[in-house]
């Protein structure tokens, strides 16, 4: 896996993935930025949520669950001192659909957390306290 990050101006950078996709990162105005993109630490958090969501949806699809929507809400706490590393991250999955089986949702979240999500497992190995929860929203037929 490869990526390139190129300085644009001030505190703005353009990141390009090895697969050819780009994203703008920028800092707040009080740090030389123009607030035109996500912060690098936000990118880490979003990436972790994306990795875990991919796992959960893949497993729910394989178990033939009728998922209409899946949202991963991430809440992170950072250290007050420099470096302001993540200390705690909580991932809450809100899964909406019809006739969803709680056992399948629970198992998908657990397997992502314990076995498949490289990003969250890496964070845990680095000392971040990572926790997971889920909520099921049953939609009308």
Automatic annotation (TrEMBL):
It comes from the Bacteria. InterPro entries: KH_dom-like_a/b, OsmC/Ohr_fam, OsmC/Ohrsf. This is OsmC family protein. It comes from Spongiibacter pelagi. The lineage of its organism: Bacteria, Pseudomonadati, Pseudomonadota, Gammaproteobacteria, Cellvibrionales.
